Amino acid sequence: MADELPDRPSEEHPIIAGLVALVGVGLVVGLVIGLVVLAGTKVLGIGGDDEGSSANGRASLYLPTPSKTSAATDPEITLAPGETESASESPSESPSESPEREISLSSSTVEVGPMEQFNLTGVYPEGEGAILTVQRFQDGTWVNFPATGSVSGEAFQIAVQTSKSGVNRFRVVDTDSGLKSGEVRVTVTG
After folding, report:
1. Is 155 a domain residue?
2. Residues 40 and 108 in one domain
3. CA–CA separation, 5 vs 11, rounded Å?
4. To the nearest 5 percent, what fractions of the chain are helix, strand and coil?
5. How far is CA 42 from the centre of its chain?
6. Half-sphere exposure of residue 69: CA atoms within 13 angstroms, side-chain side
7. pLDDT of 91 above 90
8. Would the pLDDT of 61 be above 50?
């Protein structure tokens, strides 16, 4: 019996042999995945290599320090596109006059079903915080409609529902100043 080979560990302890094999396969798979990720980051340029991002590592956004301007200086930006005249060439308008305030109004749709909600939206320059009342044209006169809204950021949106079929004419009115918008027409079908 001297010729007998000693028993292999796998035959004596198959569970330990299985765990050793499992750990070995896990290490190999982890190494392969790590190398693939490393190669991918190099190809895509992802990672800690900052040589190409900026020359000195500082932020690239520059904000100048604010400074006060005098009211007598002309504005550097013209907000009216296509205007070719300067303010000094226009005899009818002086810098002290302010343009007439207007409320612009539009509807989210031109046709709805009975009691289907739609929105009256618009812009009211210099009307921040104003309360607007919706009015409907009825029997030859404008009548308050049970919908109101407020101006925020010079804009407003008021939800409206009506069951009166046919063409309905709406406008909004600033409750404090009495300033009125133009009208919009919404047809209620049914």
Report:
1. yes
2. no
3. 12
4. 20, 25, 55
5. 35
6. 8
7. no
8. yes
Domain count, the chain: 2
Any idea what the CATH number is for the domain that residue 136 is in? 2.60.40.10
Distance, in Å, from the CA atom of 81 to the CA atom of 84, rounded to the nearest integer, reads 9
Q: Hey, what are 6's tokens?
A: 């000693």
Other Cβ atoms closer than 10 A to 76? 6
Nearest Cα neighbor of 124 from 68, 186, 71, 177 is: 177
Exposed/middle/buried for residue 6 (C-beta within 10 Å: 0-12, 13-18, 19+): exposed
Residue 169 placed within a domain: yes
Say if 93 falls within a structural domain.
no
Would you state the pLDDT for residue 111? 94
Domain that holds residue 125: 104-188
Residues 5-25: what's their mean pLDDT? 78
> Distance (Å, rounded) from C-alpha 188 to C-alpha 110?
9
pLDDT band at 75 (very low <50, low <70, confident <90, very high): low
Nearest residue to 171 via CA among 140, 133, 138:
133
**Structural domain includes residue 181:** yes
- The DSSP-derived string for 87-153 is GGG-TT--TTPPPPP--EEEES-SEE-TT--EEEEEE-TT-TT-EEEEEEEETTEEEEEEEEEE-BT
Least confident of 73-82, 135-144, 165-174: 73-82
